[in-house]
Structures are given as structure tokens and as C-alpha cells.
């Protein structure tokens, strides 16, 4: 890990480390995750690297040559991690994850920069969030800093071929995941767990273009949820667990049949705005008093995911969208950054009164993508996109983050993977 990353260990990271220490202290014989014990078995049959933006990339099935696997057992703790050729996993039919949803995962990317370097974007946040998700579904904690080392090790091996230096501004999607795969069938925490990491070429969903689809105008169309609820206070909406996603597919597929890209998830009788699909949702509007605000749902209540891109948007906005900032222009004004509960009625009123400036989603999959339409109560709210293909604020935030991820600017969030 580089010096910047070590110095910027967050509260979330520290929480993960403390959880790992408590596990180790509970039994002197239990072992914590230790990347220094990593062994590597190289593939003898390298997989074909798909072409950029090809149909195979859009199928999201073409994983890289290798994967990381680490076993945990309740009588030993974390075993030595391995890098092995990518291939099927072997689990028993009675595995806990197949019956009780003892499963969690992360989504992140590794980027090939303009300077030829590989970078992870704020990996400490993803690694720590995986600890939080794991403990929510009775899976064991671990030291998140060790998981970051394993991510780097996998990318040192597969990165050069799958993200060649001759193709800058490209990325791979990384999926660290944990499953309870113990054989016992019963409502108990798993006696055996598997942590694994895979990497896959991923399409740029923010462009909305694929070679097999008809090009469509920019901007997402969202369908506000009606009877379905994605998450609720005190539940597990904040955790990245499969149980948050599978039940949402029904509404998602129905929305697509109607021509919408994602579901805008609402909560409660007052239709509180929470998330859009699996992304965080932002609006820029003027209040009745004329104040310009960037608004998104709060983390309190644990309804929404603490998105890494969401967190980054908020931090950059609070730092740069302020009075006398060098980043302000004729189109980019200073504004207040607000995390609070707000409702669809407020959004509708802002749109009708001409106070709605723009809206966008943020996340690893869709990155930062503008929203042009929200359908609520069978009526479309038309959301402005001042630059034709994006709003001013979404556009500049996206560019700032791209500059960090691809090394155009030196920033502590862009963690370099040292290659041989």
C-alpha cells in the first residue's frame, strides 16, 4: 500500500480492523487473514481477452485467467490464501449460502491510467464495507488491509495482459465475495466460509451504448416504485448482500419492459426517495428560498448503501462547490451539500416550479450517469440536462473522478498497483 493510503485509513477501515482483532482475540488459536501466506498456481490455458466494448464484454462472462480463494473454518480461522486458475467452485447442496443467503460481495474497478499505471479507487472503503456486510449475515470478519493486498496481487498477475499499457483508459470490474459453504443444514452461522476474488471486463454502462443494441439518447429513465420496498429502517439495505438484489429483479425487469432503465426506490407513505436501482441518487435543485443544493438520501436508518462513489461525490462537492473556489464557472455555482430525507412530492414540486436543475446516479457499475426522466404516479417528470448529454454538475464531478482514476491528477484516492 502506498503512503497516502496508509495515512488515510478511514473510520470504516479502522472498524473492520477492530472487528478482525476481536475475532482473533476470542480464541488464541484462530488465524486472521494474512496475505503474506499467498501461494500462486499459474494457469496453463490462458483465456482469450475480449475486444474493447465487444459483445463478449457486454455479456459480462469473460473473467480473467486467475482468481483468489481463501477458506475460513470455525476451528482454525482464515487459511492461507491462494491464487489459482479461474474455474468452477465446488460446494455441497447443503451449503449455507444456498439456503440461508449467507453471502455478500463488493463491486469495484481497477483502471489502466494514461501514465501506464494500474490504479484501484479507494480500495480501503470497499474492503472495509465487505467486513460490515459479512458480519451482518453471520460471516467472519477479517483485516481489510489484507484483502487490499490480495486484490493488488491478483491485478499484478492478470492486469498486464487484460489491461495492457497500450490501451489506457480501460478498466476491469473486481468482485470480492464471501459465501457460507459449510455442509451443515441448519439455521446457524456457517462452519466454513469461502472468500474469493474474480475480475471481469465490464462495459461502460454510463455510455448506454453496446454493439448489439440500438443507440439511445443520453440520460436514464427511472420508474418510481409503487408497491415494492427495497429496504427499511433497521434492516440490511446498507449491506451489500445478495438478499438486497434478487427480490428487486422483479420490479427491475417489469420496468425495463415499460422502457425504463432502473427503479427509483421509494419508502413509506410519504414516498421518500432512497436509491435508483443499485445506485445512489442525487438531485440538484433550488429551494423555495432560492438556495442551490445538491441533495441525496441520508445514511441514517441504514436504508441505503454507503456507496464509495457517493461518498466521493459528497467529499468533492463539499470541497469544491464553495464560494471563491477555483472550480466555479459561469455554469457551476457554489451550493450546499445536503444529506437528508426528502420525498417525491418535493421533487415533483421542484420540477413544476422550475427549481429542478438536474439529477444523476452514482455507483461502481453506472459510475456517474445523468437522469432525464422519473415516472411517478404514471406521469413523467422531465429533468433538465443543460449540456445535452449531462447536467453541468454531474459532468464536472464525473470528469474530476475520471482524472483521479486514470492518473491525470495525483490524488490519494488513486492507489497504484505496483507491477513488475
TrEMBL record:
Catalytic activity: L-valine + 2-oxoglutarate = 3-methyl-2-oxobutanoate + L-glutamate; L-leucine + 2-oxoglutarate = 4-methyl-2-oxopentanoate + L-glutamate; L-isoleucine + 2-oxoglutarate = (S)-3-methyl-2-oxopentanoate + L-glutamate
GO MF annotation: an example: branched-chain-amino-acid transaminase activity
PROSITE patterns per record: AA_TRANSFER_CLASS_4
Broad enzyme group: transferase
Listed cofactors: pyridoxal 5'-phosphate
Keywords attached to this entry: Amino-acid biosynthesis, Aminotransferase, Branched-chain amino acid biosynthesis, Pyridoxal phosphate, Transferase
Pfam families membership: Aminotran_4
Family note: Belongs to the class-IV pyridoxal-phosphate-dependent aminotransferase family.
Family matches, as PANTHER family: BRANCHED-CHAIN-AMINO-ACID AMINOTRANSFERASE, SUBGROUP IIII AMINOTRANSFERASE
Name of the molecule in the record: Branched-chain-amino-acid aminotransferase
Amino acid at each position: 500500500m502506498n503512503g497516502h493510503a496508509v495515512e488515510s485509513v478511514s473510520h470504516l477501515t479502522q472498524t473492520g480492523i477492530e472487528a478482525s482483532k476481536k475475532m482473533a482475540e476470542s480464541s488464541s488459536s484462530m488465524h486472521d487473514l494474512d496475505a503474506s501466506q499467498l501461494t500462486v498456481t499459474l494457469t496453463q490455458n490462458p483465456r482469450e481477452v475480449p475486444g474493447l466494448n465487444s459483445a463478449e464484454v457486454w455479456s459480462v462472462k469473460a473473467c480473467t485467467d486467475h482468481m483468489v480463494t481463501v477458506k475460513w473454518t470455525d476451528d482454525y480461522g482464515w487459511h492461507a490464501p491462494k491464487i489459482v486458475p479461474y474455474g468452477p467452485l465446488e460446494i455441497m447442496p447443503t451449503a449455507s449460502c444456498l439456503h440461508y443467503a449467507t453471502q455478500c460481495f463488493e463491486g469495484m474497478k481497477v483502471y489502466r491510467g494514461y501514465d501506464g499505471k494500474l490504479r484501484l479507487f479507494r480500495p480501503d472503503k470497499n474492503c472495509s464495507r465487505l467486513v460490515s456486510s459479512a458480519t451482518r449475515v453471520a460471516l467472519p470478519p477479517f483485516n481489510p488491509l489484507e484483502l487490499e493486498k490480495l486484490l493488488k496481487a491478483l491485478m499484478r498477475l492478470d492486469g498486464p495482459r487484460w489491461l495492457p499499457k497500450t490501451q489506457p483508459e480501460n478498466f476491469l470490474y473486481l468482485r470480492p465475495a464471501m459465501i457460507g459453504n459449510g455442509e451443515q443444514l441448519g439455521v446457524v452461522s456457517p462452519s466454513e466460509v469461502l472468500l474469493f476474488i474474480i475480475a471481469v471486463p465490464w462495459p461502460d454502462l454510463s455510455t448506454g451504448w453496446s454493439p448489439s443494441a440500438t443507440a439511445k439518447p443520453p440520460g436514464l429513465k427511472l420508474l418510481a416504485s409503487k408497491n415494492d420496498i427495497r429496504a427499511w429502517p433497521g434492516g440490511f439495505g446498507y449491506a451489500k448482500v445478495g438478499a438486497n438484489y434478487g427480490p428487486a429483479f422483479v420490479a427491475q425487469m417489469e420496468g425495463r419492459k415499460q422502457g425504463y432503465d432502473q427503479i427509483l426506490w421509494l419508502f413509506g407513505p410519504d414516498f421518500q426517495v432512497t436509491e435508483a436501482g443499485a445506485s445512489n441518487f442525487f438531485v440538484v435543485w433550488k429551494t423555495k428560498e432560492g438556495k442551490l443544493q445538491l441533495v441525496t438520501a441520508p445514511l441514517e436508518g441504514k436504508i441505503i448503501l454507503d456507496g464509495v462513489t457517493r461518498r466521493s461525490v459528497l467529499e468533492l462537492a463539499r470541497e469544491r462547490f464553495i464560494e471563491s473556489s477555483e472550480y466555479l464557472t459561469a455554469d457551476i455555482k457554489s451550493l450546499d451539500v445536503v444529506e437528508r430525507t426528502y420525498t417525491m412530492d418535493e421533487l415533483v414540486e421542484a420540477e413544476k416550479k422550475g427549481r429542478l436543475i438536474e439529477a444523476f446516479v452514482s455507483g461502481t457499475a453506472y459510475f456517474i450517469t445523468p437522469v432525464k426522466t422519473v415516472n411517478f404516479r404514471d406521469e413523467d417528470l422531465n429533468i433538465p440536462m443543460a449540456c445535452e448529454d449531462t447536467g453541468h454538475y454531474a459532468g464536472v464531478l464525473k470528469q474530476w473522478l475520471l482524472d483521479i482514476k486514470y492518473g491525470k491528477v495525483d490524488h490519494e484516492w488513486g492507489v497504484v498497483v505496483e507491477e513488475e
